[in-house]
Automatic annotation (TrEMBL):
InterPro entries xref list: GH, GH13_cat_dom, Glyco_hydro_b, O16G_dom_2, SusG-like_C
Domain of life: Bacteria
Short name of any one Pfam family annotated for the protein: SusG_C
Protein name: Alpha-glucosidase
Coiled coil: none
Key words, A-Z: Glycosidase, Hydrolase
Organism placement in taxonomy: Bacteria, Bacillati, Bacillota, Clostridia, Lachnospirales
Organism: Muricoprocola aceti
Annotated ranges, domain Glycosyl hydrolase family 13 catalytic: 13-418
PANTHER family in the cross-refs: ALPHA-AMYLASE FAMILY MEMBER, NEUTRAL AND BASIC AMINO ACID TRANSPORT PROTEIN RBAT
Length: 556
């Protein structure tokens, strides 16, 4: 496998609306990010991915872009962006933007022109179909609920495709002019000195044509988008995208890819893959039900382990996955993957250890490093996210009471991770001097950065140690490149694996339960590199682990 500059990096995701507000309007901004660069440096971050900051009507929080060449005034302006890139560069931090090109906003001028003249140049930028007798071209359900077809404004006989929100019309990648527009835009940003892109929803760009119906999978008569996507391959589009853009600049690219199969993984992240890396979504999708969020069971310790190990095995010898426990589309990792009632500093550090010690590029989502938890929403009015509101309706239609529906969807709500970062214990958690656009997590006086910075045993300090260990010249090669070899897999609620380097072996053990557990070591311990709690209790070959204890050992 070819070594690339990004393999050793530690990345951090910023959700700009909720990171840091500097002008008191309650919305995070670019100057806020600039003001926190020293903080990110202190943590040890090398790459910062910022969710969309382009001009947008914000129907889907910036994932509906109306101008790819400008910054939304909510976040600042292009001077701020240039300054951010320059200041980041001084600190040896690369800026990664979100590339949202499966769709744009219905307020983009391309779509406005398409509405004016559906048969003209811009009509061909989208998927627009004639509809006779109300018969839609296909019965695909949009990701956010309802049909993916919507009447074209001003043309009741024509419908356009939107796999996401109706304010996010899909761009027609079959049209070479559209692809040229996209490549030019990507290169324009890369010329500005961007380190790379996170590529949004990219597996959706290739549609199965001609349109047709699929077997319905809910009683709305509609069918999951994936049923259409699995009939086609993105290969040609993604190869062209790579060759015309990222490859020319040696830029970093991380794909948002779901449901990828082992046989095509080399195409995505092999040496000459479409992307530098892609997210490992295996734990995020664990337990997902076609019926909706309300049907979703809590993931178990063994399921978590099996999902991680199977990804590690798939990617070994192929390329690098990017590891996450949460992002702006997921609940908080600690609430998602740890049992209810057992979310505490020790178990949070255990999860962090697993996240950082498996092979791959670690991405921290803002607030993860201080162990931010899900929000105890008490009303749907507190939730902004379009997807949560749709899933709430799905739950009601399935017969749940409003209370039950709220209880069930709030566990998965994307707003759990979208509430403002808890900087300190002052009003609005130090995020803004105004009123935040989305409520703070009410637990901010208990969980915030300011207090954890002073406490050497905090979750935050533990994240710093994990990053320092990863960058320690003595262990770096093993942690970055070493093979992940699962061990003790017949013990329940235990995730343990070796990282095998050239002439070094590390052993990572996590006791994923509140009861103690004992393991028998296969070799002698040379060094204890990390330990998230209490004593290191070894008697000869027996190692006794406390509940949620995690250790990283260098072995003889
Ligand atoms: O997400 C793509 C996507 O597939 C999501 O619908 C995902 O299934 C869901 O959020 C899981 O909770 C990307 C972005 O990350 C998301 O924020 C956007 O809403 C979406 O694309 C549309 O651009
Ligand atoms: Ca602001």
């Amino acid at each position: 496998m070819k070594k690339k500059w990004w393999h050793e990096k530690v990345a951090y995701q910023i959700y700009p609306k909720s990171f840091c507000d500097t002008n008191g309007d309650g919305v995070g901004d670019l100057r806020g990010i600039i003001s926190k660069l020293d903080y990110l440096k202190e943590l040890g971050v090398d790459l910062v991915w910022i969710s969309p900051i382009y001009c947008s009507p914000m129907a889907d929080q910036g994932y509906d872009i109306s101008d790819y060449y400008n910054i939304d005034p909510l976040f600042g302006n292009m001077e701020d962006m240039d300054e951010l890139m320059a200041e980041a560069k001084k600190r040896d931090i690369g800026i990664v933007m979100d590339l949202v090109v499966n769709h744009c906003s219905d307020e983009h001028e391309w779509f406005r022109k398409a509405c004016e003249d559906p048969n003209g140049k811009y009509g061909k930028y989208f998927y627009i179909e004639e509809v006779k007798d109300g018969k839609l071209p296909s019965n695909i359900r949009s990701y956010f609920g309802g049909s993916c077809w919507e009447a074209l404004p001003g043309h009741p006989d024509k419908y356009y495709l939107h796999l996401f929100h109706k304010k996010q019309p899909d761009l027609n990648w079959e049209n070479p002019e559209v692809r040229e527009e996209i490549f030019a835009m990507v290169n324009w940003w890369l010329e500005k000195g961007l380190a790379g892109f996170r590529i949004d929803a990219i597996i959706n760009v290739k549609k199965s044509l001609p349109w047709k119906n699929y077997p319905a999978d809910r009683d709305d008569g509609l069918s999951y988008v994936g049923n259409m996507l699995k009939e086609v391959s993105c290969h040609d589009f993604l190869t062209e995208l790579r060759d015309r853009t990222f490859a020319k600049y040696n830029a970093f690219s991380v794909g948002e890819v779901f449901d990828e199969h082992e046989d095509t993984l080399p195409d995505f992240i092999g040496d000459d893959g479409y992307f530098s890396t892609m997210f490992d979504m295996s734990t995020a999708v664990c337990g997902a039900s076609e019926k909706g969020w309300y049907e979703r069971p809590h993931i178990t310790a063994n399921e978590y382990r099996d999902a991680v190990f199977s990804s590690q095995k798939k990617a070994w010898n192929v390329g690098f996955l990017s590891n996450i426990i949460e992002n702006h589309d997921q609940p908080r990792g600690v609430s998602h993957y740890l049992p209810d009632g057992e979310v505490n500093d020790t178990s949070k550090k255990m999860l962090a250890t697993l996240h950082f010690m498996v092979r791959g590029i670690p991405f921290i989502y803002q607030g993860q490093e201080i162990g931010m938890e899900n929000v105890d929403f008490t009303s749907m009015d507190q939730i902004d996210d379009v997807m949560t509101h749709d899933e709430y309706q799905v739950a009601l239609r399935a017969g749940l009471s409003p209370e039950e529906a709220l209880e069930s969807v709030k566990k998965m709500s994307r707003d759990n991770a979208r509430v403002p970062f808890s900087w300190d214990a002052s009003e609005y958690a130090g995020f803004t001097t105004g009123k935040p656009w989305l409520m703070n997590n009410p637990d901010y006086t208990r969980i915030n950065l300011a207090s954890q910075r002073q406490d050497e045993h905090s979750v935050y300090q533990y994240y710093r140690q994990l990053i320092q260990l990863r960058k320690n010249p003595e262990y770096k090669d093993t942690i970055v490149w070493g093979k992940t070899v699962p061990v003790y897999t017949d013990q329940d609620n235990l995730t343990a694996f070796y990282r095998q380097g050239e002439d070094q072996t590390l052993l990572v053990i996590a006791n994923y339960q509140k009861e103690p557990q004992t393991i028998t070591l296969e070799a002698d311990v040379k060094n204890v590199l990390l330990n998230n709690c209490g004593e290191f209790q070894q008697k000869e070959k027996k190692l006794q682990l406390e509940g949620y204890q995690a250790v990283v050992l260098e072995m003889h």
